[in-house]
């Protein structure tokens, strides 16, 4: 059993989906503190040949609340129309706009106002479109993990899910000890994404944009072919 664990992100870049497709079960933290500086409710798209931010507006609330305790702003129903118009203007001439835009429109039509619920729905919608069968596990469904920290928390999640292999993004290379995981019967690997390029509008390429960009310029099958382009260290 292979598992990975990540925070929830709004329409994340393709590396997130590579990790997701590489495992049998993918744990998403919902009881994790929201960070303004992170990517939980924002991402980047291609606009006029450059990267530009998009975001989900949130109700004002304490900075110490978990992601599953945050809600979209009351004006979101109006703002989503503006966002859809912006996406349509940016990508109307993209080769797979007619395939991808109905998916994006369906995601935005979700009536869920809870931030985590909205992001979870967007992830499951993209997974369905790409025919990725990995099971999603919400962290709050696992007992007694909140008291643990760092790799001890990860190891306990692996134990509860009977995982024999844990795969982490390459950014965690200095955080986790393979020997410590091995003592618990778990192999630890780090996923390093290969350089991924595809044709956008211009001669240049803007990397690591939202999966929205990938969907607009690649068919579902082409994206599935990109997912295995990584190394496990």
Report the β-strand fraction as a percent range.
15-25%
Number of structurally distinct domains = 1
Q: How much helix, percentage-wise, in residues?
A: 25-40%
Chain-averaged pLDDT: 94
> What's the overall geometry?
globular
What class, by secondary structure content? alpha/beta
- The strands making up the biggest β-sheet line up spatially as 5-2-1-6-7-8
Largest sheet: 6 strands, mixed
How far apart the termini lie comes to 18 Å
Q: Count the E strands.
A: 8
Number of helices: 8
Rg, nearest Å: 18 Å
> In terms of per-residue confidence, which ranges show pLDDT below 50 for 5 or more consecutive residues?
none
Order of helices and strands: EHEEEHHHEHEHEHHE
Task: Give an overview of the whole structure.
- The chain has about 230 residues and is α/β, with parallel strands linked by helices.
- The chain has one domain (about 1-230).
- Helix content is about 35%, strand content about 15%.
- The protein contains 8 helices and 8 strands.
- It has a 6-stranded mixed beta sheet. It has a two-stranded antiparallel ribbon with strand order 3-4.
- The protein is globular.
- It starts with a strand and ends with a strand.
- The mean pLDDT is about 95.
- InterPro entries: WbqC (IPR014985).
- Pfam families: WbqC.
- It comes from Thalassomonas viridans.
Sum this structure up briefly.
This is WbqC family protein. This protein has 233 residues and is of the alpha/beta class.
Question: Secondary-structure blueprint of this entry?
Answer:
Blueprint lengths: L1 E5 L7 H8 L3 E4 L13 E6 L2 E6 L20 H16 L5 H12 L6 H16 L4 E4 L11 H11 L4 E5 L8 H6 L3 E7 L17 H7 L2 H7 L3 E3 L1
Parallel strand pairs: 1-2, 1-6, 2-5, 6-7
Antiparallel strand pairs: 3-4, 7-8
Helix pairs in contact: 2-3, 3-7
